[in-house]
Every structure is written in structure tokens, then in C-alpha cells.
């Protein structure tokens, strides 16, 4: 059970939270965590939901590239709830199981496509090494352009924030979810 009740458009929540709930339900058709929890902050929930919606569906990147970036980001954050959902969405969008397994197990990227290796490698540098090399930055820029580079960076960053919200609220993945492999010491 999460640390806060799931917000709803009911009298037990304040007007700003309820307005944010209505906005997210109207624009997304559902109210997935963590956007749902951020409705406690009113406008922040609306803004996050709109940003996630834009980054997932209205960029120069393909659905598979977006999902690969999200999976790379949430793997670094170790959040099963988002991982499970986006592995499913990624596979549906055309992400290969080999790429998912490489992300999950921190495997070498040698057997992946050039684009898979580039996105995963970029995310690993961002979140695991905490520094992006000039060579990786220029490779991502050459492949996706400045717009794609910034979109890729933004989607990875927003999913780090999403993971942080779910971690703070102790929002767990269901037992039947696809869980992350344990990190090796």
C-alpha cells in the first residue's frame, strides 16, 4: 500500500487536487502513477502529466526509441512499477527482448543494434556514471540531431523524477509484474 491514498475527484480531496485529477483523466484517459500522486501538488500534477504525454507521443523519436530510453532510465532508478509497464509497452512498440535483457542485467551492448547500444549507453553514462563523454554526446547528437538529443535526455530525466515520486510513496509493482533483476555487487 502506498503512503498516500490514490487521489480522486471526490470530496475527500481539495479543489486543486480534484481539478488536476479531472485534467489528467480527460487528457490521458486514465490517471497513472506518479502523475496521480502529484495531483496533491495541484498544478504540478497537471504539468507533469502534460510533459510526459508530450515526451512520449509528440517528439521526433520513435515509440521504440522512447520506450528504450524510459526502460534505461527506470532501470537506473530500480523502480519495478515503471519498469514492468514500460517493458510491456516497449515490446509492443518493437523493442527487442535482447535490448530489454541488456538493460535489466547491465550486459554488454555488443550484440545490440547501433541505435539500441547508443540509447542504452547514453542512459548508462547519464545515470550510472553520472557523466556523459564527449564521444557519446556527439554520437547521440549526430544520430538524432539536437532536438532528438534533448528529447531523449528529457524523457530519461522525467522518468527519473517519476521513479523518485514512486520511491518516496513506496508505490510497489503488483506481484505479477515483470520485476527487475537484482543488481550484482
Plain-language structure description:
This protein has 185 residues and is an all-alpha fold. The protein folds into 2 domains: 15-57, no CATH class; 63-169, AhpD-like. The protein has helices at residues 15-28, 35-38, 43-57, 63-77, 80-93, 97-105, 114-129, 134-169. The longest helix is centred in the C-terminal third of the chain and has 36 residues, at 134-169. The protein is globular and about 55 Å long. The model has no long low-confidence stretch (mean pLDDT 95).
Concise description?
The protein has 185 residues and is an all-alpha fold.
Radius of gyration: 17 Å
Broad structural category: mainly alpha
Number of strands: 0
**Secondary-structure element string:** HHHHHHHH
| Strand residue content | under 5%
Low-confidence stretches: none
Shape: globular
CATH superfamily of the largest domain: AhpD-like
Mean of residue pLDDT? 95
Major sheet: none
Q: Which range best describes the helical content: under 10%, 10-25%, 25-40%, 40-55%, 55-70% or over 70%?
A: 55-70%
Overall CATH architecture of the largest domain: Up-down Bundle
Number of helices: 8
Total count of domains: 2
